[in-house]
Amino acid sequence: MFERARGLAERAGDGLTLSYVLRHLGIGEHVAGRLAEARELLEESVRLRREIGFMAGVAANLVGLAYIALAEGRRDEAVAVLDEAAAIAEEDGAGGVMRSIQEARTRL
What we know:
86% helix, TPR-like_helical_dom_sf, Tetratricopeptide repeat-containing protein, mainly alpha, Serine Threonine Protein Phosphatase 5, Tetratricopeptide repeat
């Protein structure tokens, strides 16, 4: 289903929808333990979201990237990514994302 949505979003040139599709594909890869694939998908979603100015979405994806970094044993990177996510979420007024960041910090 998500692969079909990905193709449709790409053909339509809909960066926002594509960013959501990539995020959800990345989450699926993370759950399946395919961390490199998950990271690649989330990084592409972050790129698209930065491009269109969807900064709360960037911050949300950075939380996912922090979890991946932590799962790969890169704690220092996870901390840095969460710091970036917090700065973006605070500036954007994204309270829900801030709660996700705080929860992620408890797992460090």
